[in-house]
Prior knowledge:
Blueprint: H1 3-8, H2 16-48, H3 62-65, H4 69-119, H5 122-125, H6 130-172, H7 174-181, H8 183-221, H9 223-228, H10 232-282, H11 287-328, E1 349-359, E2 362-373, E3 377-381, H12 388-395, E4 403-408, E5 411-412, H13 418-422, E6 425-428, H14 439-443, H15 452-461, H16 465-469, H17 488-502, E7 506-510, H18 518-531, E8 536-541, E9 552-557, E10 560-565, H19 567-573, H20 576-585
Parallel strand pairs: 3-8, 3-9, 6-7, 7-8
Antiparallel strand pairs: 1-2, 1-4, 4-5, 9-10
Amino acid sequence: MHHALWRLLRYAKPHAGILVLAFACMAVLGLATGAYAYLLGPALRFLLSGGEEGFASAHRVPWLANLPREAALWGFPVFVLAVGAVKGVGYLGQFYFMGLFAQRVVKDLRRDLFLRLTALSPSQLSKERTGDLLSRFSSDVMAVELAAMYTVGSYLRDTIQVLVLASVALAMSPVLGGLMLAVIPLAALPASKLTRKVLKGTREGQAHLGQLAGQLHEGLGGLRTIQAFNGQQAELARFESYAKAHEEAVVGAAWARGGVPGLMEVLAAAALAGALGYAAATRAMEPEALLSLLTAVILVYQPVKDLGRVTQFAVQAGAAGERLLALLDLKHPVEDATGAGPAPALRESLRMEDVRFFYGERRALEGLTLDLKVGQVAALVGGSGGGKSTVTSLLLRFERPQQGRILLDGMDADTYTAASVRSQFALVTQEPLLFHGTVLENLRHARPEATKEEVEAAAKVANADAFIQALPQGYDTRIGERGVTLSGGQRQRLCIARAVLSKAPVLVLDEATSSLDPENEREVQAALAKVLPGRTALVIAHRLSTVTNADVIHVVEAGRIVESGSHADLLQKEGRYAAMWRLQTSGPIERGAA
């Protein structure tokens, strides 16, 4: 079995009871099928002769010889009906329990995938294409679902049927039965080679399908840009290249997949022809015994072919499992240390001490030291790429510094769980992220147990209550995916209200107004003017006009703090901050500086 499937088997263990019930139904089904084959020959001879000849093969089922002629004549149709009913119940139970088993397995798998993805750091997820992740959640999980539903059950059901029917065939004639069954091991080697080709093609096909999904996601997300630059043909060419690669991989796998039953069909026909020729030449068997033998062998070939077919499901699930396990195996860069406990609410200060951090080879922070006292509003300003937003990632434990420490009230953050450290912060980012749902549901995302009164109070602090009340259903209004029905300023004020509702000790505003137009920025600034007084806050900004009231402003360049002070103090220093201020307010524009 594929190593990925071995690892995925752990999802089956909690539902072993369901499998036992399914296996019981399969065992009944296999035995009933064997009974058909075993009795078919003597039954037909008895019925066609009107019962006059009795059971020529009654020695194989002695109790039949004692049945009265009339009882046997009517009993066989009843017996056939009874066996059919038993098989019907077996099929029903098998498919119900295997379907239930598959859904339970997939539900657990999807849950773990969702938990893993939502537990990864933003930098880890940024390396993956969103469309590819969605493809893994859909097509890859579906491949595992099909394998759980059909492969597990078919392996047992078909194996039982093969063993029962092979036993019947060998009981009828060890020589002829053995000859006709010999094709099964003969087909194993070429079938295994074809299966490896199926695995290779399936693995490549799943990867190309992820590329297709990623291309589609990017195309829909960048639709305005594509149309603005008339880039449809270029995007189509890229899409078709992925589609062509996917087609070639899938067609190659389909060719190899079809070779397994085709090979089995040819070998089975050859074995049957040889056995029939031998039986005709030697006349070594009674007609009814030969009929039972042929029935058993013909019936045994079908589950063997089915085993080959469902093996393809297993192969596809193995390729999909590799991609799923690659996600499940990802580890967050900040794992809780052994013995880590919950962090108490911040009481005095937060400190980043001589912190260094690199994204691969690119330096983001180089010996940065930052202090934030409780009740203080501190600002980080500077050009793009200076390391300001990296500070946020480190504070919220999205990343771990390669050197230096982060201290909460003098205690190393590593002594606390990452989740409890994050609970110290309420984050408002440049992109106001809202979820599909109602206003109330979005605000309670910060604190699900918050009362309606607490939600409304937080919205009032963020200057959001008035426009919320004006919505068609007020707080119960659905705002669409990412809050598409609201303006940028309204979305950002909801994010601020959500941060206020969280009651986290430290408010972090990471470029919270940089993407807004002047009117919406004024609305958000008015909200922040009510939120910030008396709170502990870290404000990261490009626009210096948004941080003039901060208690302390730190200028960050090349991963270091190069200046610190109040707005007035920094202007008097005539340093980097003063130069940035003049440039953003009334500084001259140099001609020729393209």
